[in-house]
Amino acid sequence: MPKIVFTEPDGRRREIDAPAGITLMEAARQNGVQGILAQCGGACACATCHVYIDPAWLAQLESREDMEEGMLESAWEPRANSRLSCQIHVTAALDGLQVTVPQRQG
Amino acid sequence: MISTILIIGGGQAGAQAIDTLRREGFGGRIVLIGDEPELPYQRPPLSKKYLSGEMAADRLLFRHRSFYDEHRIELKLGQRAVRLDAQARQVALADGETLSYDRLLLCLGAASRRLTCPGADLAGVHYLRGIADVGAIQAGLKPLARVVIIGGGYIGLETAATGIKMGCEVTVLEMADRIMNRVVAPSVSTYFSDEHASHGVRIHCDTRVVGLEGAGRVERVVCADGKSHAADLIVVGVGAVAATDIASAAGLACDNGIVVDEHCRTSDAAIFAAGDCTNHPSPHYGRRMRLESVDNAFEQAKTAALNMLDRPTVHDRVPWFWSDQFDNKLLIVGLSQDHDRQIVRGDPASRSFSVCYLKGRELLAVEAINHSKDYMAARKLIAERTLLNPEKIADGNCALKEAV
Ligand SMILES: Cc1cc2nc3c(=O)[nH]c(=O)nc-3n(C[C@H](O)[C@H](O)[C@H](O)COP(=O)(O)OP(=O)(O)OC[C@H]3O[C@@H](n4cnc5c(N)ncnc54)[C@H](O)[C@@H]3O)c2cc1C
Ligand code: FES
Predict the structure, then answer these.
(1) ipTM
(2) What pLDDT was estimated at residue B18?
C-alpha cells in the first residue's frame, strides 16, 4: 500500500498507509493527522484541507482545476506548492510522497 | 474537577467535540452515545456521491475505529439515550444502563420533517437523513422509475440530480413559487431550475401536495390544483426539525432547538449543546438562529468542547454551506436577511457567477455558482466587515477582494 508522509504543524512526522483510490485528505483524516480539518469532506468547498507538497513530487500530481485554484487563492499562506489534499487521489506512483500541513487552515 | 464527559449524538458535532477535547489535553473519560450503529460519518454525500454509488460506505467515516481506541473514547453506538436527569447529572440509555457525567454535550442533530397528509405512511415514501435511509432509496432509483421528490430544497434537488444520473424519470414538487426560495436569490433559483430542466427534471412550483394514494404502496401524489403525478418512489425533503426531546423533558430551555448562549451552554451550567439541535446567538448578525450545516456543527462543537474545559470561547462564525447539483457547485457564505441591495457579478450564461448582498457598503452574504474565488474572498470580507465599493463589485472584471 502506498505510504504518505505527513508533517503535522508541530513538526511531528506521520507515515500513513493510504490505499490507492482514496484522497490524501481522506487518508489524513481517517488517521487523525493534525491540522487537516477537511470540513466539507472533499467537496472542494472549504479549503481546510490545504497542504504543501514536497516540490520534488509536484510534477507527479494531476494539476489544479479552476475550482481548486480559486479556493487556494484565499487560503492561509498559499504557496506555489499549495494543494487541496481532497483533490489528490492516492496512486501507487505516490508511494513516499511528502506532505506538510500548514500552521493554520482558513 | 471534570473527570467524565458524556456526548450524546455521534454525528458531525459529536465527532468534532471528541477531537477538540483530546487535542486540548483532556485526559478524563469520554463516552460517546449514538443511536446509529455506524461510527460517526458525514451526511452530505448521502444525497450526492454516496447515493449515486460513486462513494463507498467506508469513505463516509470521519475516522477509523483505531482513532477512537487510541484516544480512549468509549463508544456506545446503536444506543439511544432515553432520559436525562440534570439534577443528578445522569443519563439513562435504552438498555437500562445509567451513566453519570461532570459535563454533558448534546449533539442530537435534527430529524426529517414528516408529511402529515393522507397516505403519508404508505410504503414507498422515503426521507433522507442517515445511512439507514439510503438503501431503500437507492433500490428504487432504477432506470425509468418514476421518482417524485416533494420539496425543492437542497436535499430534494440533489436527490433529483442523482435520480437523473441513475436514469429515473424525476419530478420535483415545490410549494413556493421557486426552488430553494428561502436560501438563494431568484436569479440563482432560475439558474438551477434551468439546469434541472435541461437534464430532464420536471419541476412544478406553486404546487401543494394534499395526499398520497396507492393500494398498500404509493402510486401517485395528488396536488391541491387537482393534478396527480404517478410515482414508484417518493423522496420527501421538506426540512428538518431539531431533536430536543430528551433536553426538553429534562427541563432545559428549548425554542426551535435547544437554547444555548454564545458559549454553547444550555440553561443548565453543566450541559452544552452543538450543531443542528441548537438555537444559538450569532454575535456577527446580532440575532438568534438555528442552522443546519456542517460548518456550524463543526465550529459549535469545538467551542462547546473548549468551554466544557473552562476555556471561555465565543462561537461567532459567518455561516457557509455548499450544494452539488449535476456538475454545479453552489457555495453560500453569510446570511442575506436585511440586505438593501443585490448585485450579480458575471453572467449566469457563462455558468460561473455570484450574487452579492449588501447592507450599505457592508457585504452580508454571497451565493457563488461555480465561482470559488468570490466565495473565498467573501468569507474574509464578511467576517471582517470590510466596507466595499458597490460599483467595483458590479464590475465582474474586478476581483471581489479588490472591490474596496
Ligand atoms: C442528505 C443530507 C445532505 C446534506 N448536505 C449538506 C451539505 O452539502 N453541506 C452542509 O453544510 N450540510 C449538509 N447537510 C447538513 C449536515 O449534515 C448537518 O448539518 C450535520 O450533520 C449536523 O451535525 P450534528 O452533529 O448537529 O447532527 P447529526 O449529524 O444529525 O448527528 C446527530 C446524531 O445524534 C443522534 N441522536 C439523536 N438523538 C439521540 C439520542 N437521544 N440518543 C443517541 N443518539 C441520538 C442521531 O441519530 C445522529 O446520529 C446535509 C444533511 C443531510 C441529511
Ligand atoms: S476538504 Fe473541503 S476543500 Fe478539501
Answers:
(1) 0.94
(2) 98
For residue B222, the model assigns a pLDDT of: 98
Q: Which residues of B touch A67 (CB under 8 A)?
A: 329, 370, 372
**Nearest CB neighbour to A73, from listed B42, B322, B376:** B376
Return the SS3 of B155.
helix
What is the pLDDT, as a whole number, of residue A106? 76
Question: Domains of chain B, with CATH numbers?
Answer: 4-111+240-308 (3.50.50.60), 125-236 (3.50.50.60), 327-402 (3.30.390.30)
Q: How many CB atoms lie within 10 A of CB B400?
A: 26
Pairwise CB contact (< 8 Å): A41 & B19 = no
How do strand B353-359 and strand B362-369 relate by DSSP bridges? antiparallel
Q: What is the pLDDT of residues B100-145, one digit of tens each?
A: 999 999 999 999 999 999 999 999 999 999 999 999 999 999 999 9
The minimal CB distance from B376 to the residues A29, A41, A74 is found for: A74
Q: Is residue A106 part of a domain?
A: no
Q: Give the DSSP H/E element, type plus range, for residue B220.
A: strand B220-223
Residue A59 lies in a domain: yes
Give the CATH number of the domain where residue A27 resides.
Answer: 3.10.20.30
Residue the block writes with cell 494543494? A83
Chain segment B211-253, per-residue pLDDT in tens: 999 999 999 999 999 999 999 999 999 999 999 999 999 999 9
- Examine residue A105 and state whether it is found in any structural domain, yes or no: no
Report yes or no on A95 lying in a domain. Answer: yes
Domain range for residue A34?
3-100
Interchain CB distance below 8 Å, A43 and B322: yes
Closest atom, ligand 2, to C-alpha of A86: 4
Name B87's Cβ contacts closer than 8 Å, sequence gap at least 6: none
Cβ neighbour number for residue A57 with a 10 Å cutoff: 15
In chain A, the number of structural domains is 1
* Owner of C-alpha cell 433522507: B128
Opening angle at CA B75, ends B71 and B78, nearest 5: 155
Percent of chain A with pLDDT over 70: 100
- For the CA of B134, the nearest ligand: 1
CA of residue B182 to ligand 1 center, whole Å: 20
Cα(B110) to centroid of ligand 1, in Å?
6
